[in-house]
Amino acid sequence: IPTLSATRIYKGQQGKHSGEEDYLSFEKFPHVGLAKTYNVNKQVPDSAGTGTAFLCGVKTNFRVLGVDARVTLNDCTTMHAETKLQSIVNWAQDKGKRTGVVTSTRITHATPAATYAHTANRDWESNGNIDEDNTQDCPDMKDIARQLVEDEPGNNLNVILGGGFQCFDANVTEILGDPFDKDCARTDNRVLWKDWIKQKKEEGVSHKFIRTLSELNQVSDDTDYLFGLFSNGHMPYEHAKKINNMDIPTLPEMTEKAIKLLSKGDKGYFLLLEPGHLGRPPSPVALHLGSSGEFQSDDAVKMEPMVLSTHDDIALALATTSDMCFFQHMQRNVLGLAAFADDDLPYTTLMYANGPGYNYTVAEGIVTRWNLTEDTVKDWTYTQQAAVPLDKETHGGDDVAIYATGPMAHLFHSLHEQNYIAHAMAYAACIGDNLDHCRSSATTFSTPTLMIVTLPVILYKYFVGTL
């Protein structure tokens, strides 16, 4: 919740006013609740566990994905048919809805993968990322990328847009602004995106695989299936796209195309939107980069008139995890210097409790903090300082906010377990198991649409949905 304030202020300051009185679009939703984010075996969660909770309706263990808590991290032998969970994508497809996933992360990353994958380790995104012991113990086990292309519900997604090309192709190259991604190691000589094309040809459906914004703009709105992978790993930040003149779409551009394609169905649709890696940039952690992405996310939420009918749909904004941590002063540049500390050195308004921003210098034999300047902290690549050294900052374990509007928005009204979110969304959209209320004409929605938009608010990740 505090990070919402920081983003709101930054957004307002970009509009040349103080910022404290500004609003993010979803902050005006009339219904508000809280969600508890812990994993079954961790007080402070990771995104695989939280993604499984809010998309599958079951809390699970730290770093496992799309499976219940009987599965042990890094042990494929604990996975079996009964431990695999269905997601809200399964429920939507069972009701004939069109479905899609749009993300700025790798499409195989934790949150998007929670819609379709089942794995004992979220890092098993491609075959080369699976250790030798698990490969030997479970020779038929599929990595996350293969599950997307080969198995339901992934292979039935109508729209797939994001990064992670390297997870789907064993023969990739790197270019300026799009380096190799160590988290994707396709070593089996498979070219999975070609397998996807072959599959769609055999099904006799209109389809398109794309790599660039130019190709995205040429896709017909009558296309049944669209698969776009715009970078080897996570998609570049907007600043990098501009300085490197990269032909890569923004979140609103991907969102607009996804909505057009999904809207062609007559039974509503499900869409997950996640600019997720903006909330946890690899290194350095640069808040300029994250916050600039947030404004795209806020623009995507403002696109909701394209999605919401006047009475059939519900909008939901929520966070899945919080992160660590900042201090804020009124009437100051939220990304600038705040004041002087007891060591007579300046500190910034925003700081992390941990992460790669831990640093120091030695002056005359004395270890001290860096003497920051306004020019230093305004640089796009500046890493905010952290109190504890880690290669990446961690999530927080605190409760996160839920904002809701529209029919059934009152279901989000107090402190909820995070897995409650999936069941409440399904109830509102008349999908899943609990359908008794949908048999009444007074309560049944004609074509309820489900859209979840994950919004990284500088340090947080926020999720918006229209049901």
TrEMBL record:
<dbReference type="InterPro" id="IPR001952">
    <property type="entry name" value="Alkaline_phosphatase"/>
</dbReference>
<comment type="similarity">
    <text>Belongs to the alkaline phosphatase family.</text>
</comment>
<feature type="active site" description="Phosphoserine intermediate">
    <location>
        <position position="47"/>
    </location>
</feature>
<protein>
    <recommendedName>
        <fullName>Alkaline phosphatase</fullName>
        <ecNumber>3.1.3.1</ecNumber>
    </recommendedName>
</protein>
<feature type="binding site">
    <location>
        <position position="109"/>
    </location>
    <ligand>
        <name>Mg(2+)</name>
    </ligand>
</feature>
<dbReference type="Pfam" id="PF00245">
    <property type="entry name" value="Alk_phosphatase"/>
</dbReference>
<feature type="binding site">
    <location>
        <position position="395"/>
    </location>
    <ligand>
        <name>Zn(2+)</name>
    </ligand>
</feature>
<feature type="binding site">
    <location>
        <position position="274"/>
    </location>
    <ligand>
        <name>Mg(2+)</name>
    </ligand>
</feature>
<keyword id="KW-0597">Phosphoprotein</keyword>
<dbReference type="InterPro" id="IPR017850">
    <property type="entry name" value="Alkaline_phosphatase_core_sf"/>
</dbReference>
<keyword id="KW-0378">Hydrolase</keyword>
<keyword id="KW-0479">Metal-binding</keyword>
<dbReference type="GO" id="GO:0004035">
    <property type="term" value="F:alkaline phosphatase activity"/>
</dbReference>
<dbReference type="InterPro" id="IPR018299">
    <property type="entry name" value="Alkaline_phosphatase_AS"/>
</dbReference>
<keyword id="KW-0460">Magnesium</keyword>
<feature type="binding site">
    <location>
        <position position="111"/>
    </location>
    <ligand>
        <name>Mg(2+)</name>
    </ligand>
</feature>
<keyword id="KW-0862">Zinc</keyword>
<dbReference type="GO" id="GO:0046872">
    <property type="term" value="F:metal ion binding"/>
</dbReference>
